[in-house]
Amino acid sequence: MQCSTGNSQSCGNSNSEENIKDDEVRYPDGSVKLRNPNIELMDQDILYHLALGSGSHDLVEMFGDVKFVCMGGTPKRMENFAHFMMKEIGHKLPTGTQLMDICQYSYRYSMYKVGPILSVSHGMGGPSIGILLHEIIKLMYHAKCKDPIFFRIGTCGGIGLDGGTVVISEDAVDGMLNRYYQVPILGRIVKRPTRFDKKLIKELKALADPEDPYDTVTGTTMCADDFYEGQGRLDGAFCDYTETEKMQFLESLSANGVRNIEMEATVFSALTNQAGIKAADICVTLLDRLKGDQVMAPKEVLNEWQVRPQILVGRYIKRYLQMKGRISLDGHGSIAVKSPRRFKLVQQESQTFD
Ligand SMILES: O=P(O)(O)O[C@@H]1C[C@H](O)[C@@H](CO)O1
Ligand SMILES: O=c1cc[nH]c(=O)[nH]1
């Protein structure tokens, strides 16, 4: 297997774009521009799977202040993340109100809003996150959100990494190690390059605390279309390969820089890249796939591990808001500003938080 370069030639399709121009995806004030001329000609746009619409809801009023869109597979994780962020940024709900699932009547996805943070579940696999991304990107457009940043906070299988390790994706490849997301459109295969924001990756990595009782690493993420055979497991309902073949495959992934396997990275990186939206995928490993297939860690351990990507993203968001003067520097909740000097260095190094 070879990693393709992911440029328009190797993708072999005119829809793969190397450089997306700013004015194609942003209005001068930074608000999201859609690369679909049909939408602005429509009387209203029904965001069917979110149970929201541009005709039925005042989307600017409801979502205009959103800066961070955080997504992960399960409704419970995203509800917990919303509560966690509420404490972190000291967000107070109006008296007598509580956090509500904004999309409860979609019966598809769950969505919570905490100030400038949206916390949304995406279900399992490419098609599910793909539909969500279309509608969330359109939501950003209708709400006139400015330069939003997207995070996926997920789980994965590690390649040569212990359970509980946090992996920040540098690249996303499919099960053939192609650096593109391939989708049939009007009877043609369209290949969209997968690309994460390098600066964002660097900033996140720098926010890993040496005192964290787990490792935070970066590397290539393989995105599979299946949990079992698609990830070379021996324990699916079917298996037509040997353990030796499985191990050869996993070793070849490792040799190609793949550090984890999950099921959304290609779609997530390709569609955010297509929309000109900065994005990062941060997952915790639930096991080392070089040592087994079954997820055996006890529920309490898995629950603790799942929080680790949230802590990293929480640090990023909190520090962003602190730098923007939107929350106080002495901070709230459990993510203390342990090392302001280090944060300053991160900023100087990457000239971020613009
Ligand atoms: O974000 P989550 O934990 O849902 O992502 C991974 C990839 C699949 O959707 C799922 C498989 O168990 O977990
Ligand atoms: O092995 C794993 C664990 C979580 N999610 C995956 O897709 N694979």
From TrEMBL:
Ligand binding (phosphate): 108, 152-155
Biased composition, class Polar residues, residue ranges: 1-17
**Which positions fall inside the Nucleoside phosphorylase domain?**
67-318
Could you tell me which Pfam families the record lists for this protein? PNP_UDP_1
Record's InterPro entries? Nucleoside_phosphorylase_d (IPR000845), Nucleoside_phosphorylase_sf (IPR035994), Uridine_phosphorylase_euk (IPR010059)
**Which GO BP terms apply?**
nucleotide catabolic process; uridine catabolic process
Q: Name one GO molecular function term.
A: uridine phosphorylase activity
Query: Which Gene Ontology cellular component annotation is one that this UniProt entry carries?
Result: cytosol
Cite the record's Basic and acidic residues compositional bias ranges. 18-27
Name the segments for region: Disordered: 1-29
Which of this chain's residues are annotated to bind substrate? 231, 233
Into which family does the record put it? Belongs to the PNP/UDP phosphorylase family.
What name does UniProt use for this protein?
Answer: Nucleoside phosphorylase domain-containing protein
